[in-house]
Design goal:
The protein is α/β, with parallel strands linked by helices. It has 2 domains: 131 residues, Periplasmic binding protein-like II (D-Maltodextrin-Binding Protein, domain 2, 3-Layer(aba) Sandwich), CATH 3.40.190; 101 residues, Periplasmic binding protein-like II (D-Maltodextrin-Binding Protein, domain 2). Helix content is 41%, strand content 18%. A 6-stranded mixed β-sheet has the order 2-1-3-10-4-11. Strands 7-6-8-5-9 form a 5-stranded mixed β-sheet, with helices on both faces. β1, α3 and β2 form a beta-alpha-beta unit. α3 runs antiparallel to α13 and α4 packs parallel to α5. 35% of the residues are buried.
Length: 314
Amino acid sequence: MKKRSIIAILLVVVMLFALAACGSQTPAPADNNNQQQQNEPAKEPEKEPEKEPEKEPEKEPEKEPEAEPVELIVFAAASMTETLTQIAEMYKAVAPNVELVYNFDSSGTLKTQIQEGADCDLFISAAPKQMNALDGAKDAEGGNTEGLDFVDSATRINLLENKVALAVPDGNPKGINSYDDLIAGLKDGSVMLAMGNSDVPVGQYTQKILKYFELDEEALASAGCITYGSNVKEVTTQVKEATVDCGIIYGTDAFSAGLTVVDTATKDMCGQVIYPAAVLKVANHPDEAKAFLDYLTGAEASAVFEAVGFSPMA
């Protein structure tokens, strides 16, 4: 009996402790935020803004390789000294790699130098005679009596025309105003004339004029009425220095020297004064020579030629 009572009491005590323990535990408040997050629809992750593809650095335009320097040798009649010298400065802007090297002299002397093997890319003569003598496309009747073959005939052109002028020194001491005055003075021995040698184009044109007026050149020279120059520049200098009474030169040389021209020869008196030009077969730089010859026929060069009295023909 006592055992049952004790057991009963122990059960009651255990139950009381259990109830006390349950009463002391407070339920945790519900996590509203967590519940709200569970109720809200899941958000998609924000996409990072797309990066623009990086631009490749712009490439600098490739520079054209600089042309090789070229020394272009041009043989030209002495009467072209001033014009071609001016054109050489202009041509530097067109072909900066090309250095123009001129050899100015009488066309006869230049022809001989070419024939003897001198380096030359382009030849400009003051008359067809010297060019014909080097042109293999010409036969003996056409002026090539030696069978020479230096000219590239495909490049040959008539570049310019000049005039054969009667020029006098400052003040014109002898009062020479025409070819008729010259002829009269030569006949009576009162005039001293300067002319070019027989192998110089300007001298050959003068010979035709004397022949036209039926004068004997040899007799006049023997009488002291004629002096000579090895090229047109020498004749021009004699007139400029007034060591003669007059001289027969080109109109362009008279202009460049500031001389007075009193008369101009007609075509009947001496024919046309044609300046042919051509690239040579022996040229070291034929392409550059052709390019320069083309430039000489253009507007810029023609303006220079016309300014001193040349008439462009090409």
